[in-house]
Design brief:
CATH superfamily: NAD(P)-binding Rossmann-like Domain
Shape: globular
Order of helices and strands: HEHEHEHEEHEHEEHHHEHH
Strand order of the largest sheet: 3-2-1-4-6-7-9
CATH topology: Rossmann fold
Number of helices: 11
Number of strands: 9
Distance between the termini: 72 Å
Oligomer: single chain
Largest sheet: 7 strands, parallel
Number of domains: 1
Helix content: 40-55%
Length: about 300
């Protein structure tokens, strides 16, 4: 007698709660805002959009102010006390957290030589440490109810690294590894962890890029050995982001599909280019893959010329 997939999977499946309680970090702009608007339009969730205190007014202006099923909350994801207070307040108000969407993130543009320890920790605190701490805070309740969804917004930068973005990729690689381990750990309680990996998105995200003191100086100094790295990579990324058809709304729709899935995958591509990059990495021999990427870098023939 054959065994069905349902019988082979020992994961206990619980009834999905009515009006799941969803926390979204980094909700005041970009993808986080698009996710919140999508969830709000569906009108079948209780939504907690979070943002820094200074951005709460922006949420109100964008239609995400407090109402029956929407409760904005101040949160600096790097502040442990604020993270703890958020979970306590949501549980007190609505009894539980069913879905955590770790969307808040920053991107630092700098070559390795231009990153000092404080820069590195600032990047890791937002993109890796905060999501894992928030996940840790909601897991006891999810395990007790045997239902939960943790969705971590990763990036193509979490599966392939690019020059001038080492510390950003490091934070996303860390998030990917920890999320994969977590997915195995909590699945017995019907808690599913998913990494959504967007590629290039046509949004204002480029305006939020951070530079270290050294990378900013190098970008402005044509005699810097790394000037060409920053010049060509910055213009290339800005051009691509202005031309791609992928929007935050498209990625937000995929996030909602993950919430609704009975057994969501550990990874899902947020955009078509993310799917293509993943396929390229899997199918090509490793050395050939890296050689193709290196030769495809914008302005690569100009890199290093100042040292000749």
């Amino acid at each position: 007698m054959s065994t069905t997939d349902e019988e082979r999977d020992c994961t206990p499946v619980q009834t999905r709660p009515s009006r799941p309680v969803v926390i979204v970090t980094g909700a005041s702009r970009g993808l986080g805002l698009a996710i919140c608007r999508h969830l709000q339009r569906l009108d079948r969730f209780r939504l907690v959009p979070t943002a820094r205190s200074a951005s709460l007014g922006r949420l109100n202006a964008l239609g995400l102010g407090e109402r029956e099923h929407v409760w904005p909350h101040a949160l600096d994801v790097t502040d442990g006390d604020q993270r703890e207070r958020l979970i306590e307040d949501v549980v007190e108000k609505w009894g539980r957290v069913d879905v955590l969407i770790n969307n808040a993130g920053v991107m630092t543009r700098a070559v390795v030589e231009h990153v000092v320890e404080s820069d590195r920790m600032a990047q890791m605190s937002v993109n890796y440490r905060a999501p894992m701490e928030l996940a840790r805070a909601v897991l006891p309740g999810m395990r007790a109810r045997r239902f939960g969804r943790i969705i971590n917004i990763s990036s193509v930068g979490g599966m392939m690294a690019m020059p001038t973005m080492s510390v950003y990729s490091a934070s996303k690689f860390a998030l990917e590894g920890a999320s994969e381990a977590l997915a195995y750990e909590v699945r017995p309680w019907n808690v599913f962890v998913t990494l959504v990996q967007p590629g290039f998105i046509n949004s204002d995200g480029i305006e939020q890029v951070r530079y270290t003191d050294r990378s900013r100086n190098s970008l402005q100094d044509e005699t810097s050995p790394y000037f060409s790295h920053y010049k060509y990579m910055s213009s290339f990324i800005e051009k691509i982001m202005g031309r791609v058809r992928a929007t935050p709304e498209i990625v937000a729709a995929k996030v909602v599909k993950v919430i609704d899935a009975k057994r969501p995958s550990i990874r899902t591509a947020g955009t078509i280019d993310a799917f293509l990059f993943s396929a390229l990495r899997r199918l090509l021999p490793r050395d050939l893959y890296h050689e193709i990427l290196y030769r495809s870098l914008p302005g690569i023939r100009e890199w290093g010329k100042l040292d000749e």
